[in-house]
Amino acid sequence: MRRNAAIHEQAVTLTFLGTGDAFGSGGRLQSSIHVDDRRTPFLLDCGATALIAMKRFGIDGTSVQGIFVTHLHGDHTCGIPFILREAQILGTDRGPLSIAGPAGIEEHVHAMMNSLFPGSWGRGFGYDLAFAELEPLRPCTWQDVVVTPFPAVHSPLTRPLSLRVETAGRVIACSGDTEWNPHLVDAAHGADLFVCECFDLLGPRRNHLDYQTLLENHHLLHAGRIVLTHMNATMLEHAGALRFERAHDGMQVTI
């Protein structure tokens, strides 16, 4: 993919806004990654602490033009209402915002807004807000970004996906929350960076990847760089002995 997009190629910087599990193990923030491709900054997932993290790490949240969601669990989506509400209340000057995720993403955001900020949905936002549903194995183009969703194995009602994102001549793969499955091989193949959740040390574990299973299968993942995230307390306790690179809140990676 990089060869085909050579004329647009430039460095892409990822900031890990949150690398924790749903329960804040190790005091870490919830899942979210800011991607700066020098054209259309966007987020991969948007856990409840995403806005806090952007302010903490010096990222202008109003510059975010897109949010891509892997699945509909709160630790990956609950930051969205706070981003929308801040602009609504403070009249923040920002451009259009697009939110793409599994089937039902718009209804999910609507329900969160009405639950967290009752009556807020009908007030308007002062900027264009658009939604798109990602269909497994069907590439979606947004601006100059191509997102290919792959089926994942997680709580079925969350409609889980793994994402392969191509922008500025770079490829980022993101497992989302998932058990090991063959689609991870396709999502990660040839990626410059594969962000892989690794919830627990030993497994297999239902709904999540574990370090033992990843070790047994990582030879199938032909990615330039593998970084682990979404680790529980046991994983964090053994972090120094792990074979793979581990993300931490505020970590920046340039590819």
Layout: helices, strands, pairs:
Elements: E1 13-18, E2 32-36, E3 42-46, H1 50-56, E4 66-68, H2 74-77, H3 80-90, E5 97-101, H4 105-116, E6 129-133, E7 140-142, E8 145-151, E9 161-167, E10 170-174, H5 183-188, E11 193-197, H6 211-217, E12 226-229, H7 233-237, E13 245-246, E14 252-254
Quick tags:
alpha/beta, single chain, Metallo-beta-lactamase, Chain A, disordered N terminus, 255 residues
Short summary:
Helices cover 20% and strands 25% of the residues.
Word description of this protein:
It is a single chain. This protein has 255 residues and is α/β, with parallel strands linked by helices. The protein has a single domain, classed as 4-Layer Sandwich (Metallo-beta-lactamase, Chain A). It has helices at residues 50-56, 74-77, 80-90, 105-116, 183-188, 211-217, 233-237, and strands spanning 13-18, 32-36, 42-46, 66-68, 97-101, 129-133, 140-142, 145-151, 161-167, 170-174, 193-197, 226-229, 245-246, 252-254. It has a 7-stranded mixed sheet. Strand 3 (42-46), helix 1 and strand 4 form a beta-alpha-beta unit. The model is unreliable at 1-7 (pLDDT under 50).
